[in-house]
Specification:
The protein has three helices and nine strands. It is an alpha+beta fold and 164 residues long. The strands form two sheets. A seven-stranded antiparallel β-sheet has the order 2-3-4-8-7-6-5. A hairpin with a 2-residue loop joins strand 3 and strand 4. The longest helix has 12 residues.
């Protein structure tokens, strides 16, 4: 019988934070299969009612990360209504095929701002995505202060983290 690969330190940290979260019943833990070439030191991050892990780099606190945030009233809306809300809020909308469906993310610069014409790659800006995952009630956050391309790569590397 094959055995599961040992969990990384980051995955153990995500599971530990998720197990303490008030929303753990509606917000399964997600993790990155790959951090898309970025290194950093993972640490717990604070998200009231939810769970979060941020990766710090030597000169950048919270360079990138992931969070399952507290449940909001809009989180109980249908997937179509949630997709419409994210499409109105964010300039970019992306399907997330590696996650249970329907799964999608709206993203841009923190504050639901578009990427500036002078910095369309978002280098050094706080790129932020709100995402929904089929079967989960919460809205997840994924962010990168590295670049827009890094955020997009993180989104493509998301998957559910087994809790057993």
């Amino acid at each position: 019988m094959p055995t599961a690969a040992p969990l990384s330190a980051a995955d153990r940290l995500i599971l530990g934070q998720w197990r303490k979260a008030a929303n753990r019943g509606e917000c399964a833990p997600l993790h990155f299969r790959s951090t898309a070439g970025a290194s950093g030191t993972p640490r717990p991050a604070r998200f009231s009612g939810g769970w979060a892990v941020a990766w710090d780099q030597p000169q950048v606190r919270s360079a990138f990360g992931i969070a399952g945030v507290a449940i909001l009233p809009d989180d109980h809306a249908s997937a179509d209504a949630q997709r419409d809300r994210l499409a109105r809020q964010w300039q970019h909308l992306r399907q997330l095929d590696t996650l249970p469906q329907p799964a999608f993310a709206g993203y841009g610069v923190e504050g639901a701002q578009p990427y500036p014409v002078t910095n369309p790659e978002g280098k050094g800006l706080n790129s932020l995505a709100y995402l929904r995952v089929g079967g989960q009630t919460c809205t997840y956050n994924v962010w990168s202060r590295i670049s827009r391309a890094h955020l997009e790569a993180l989104l493509e590397n998301l998957e559910l983290l087994p809790t057993g």
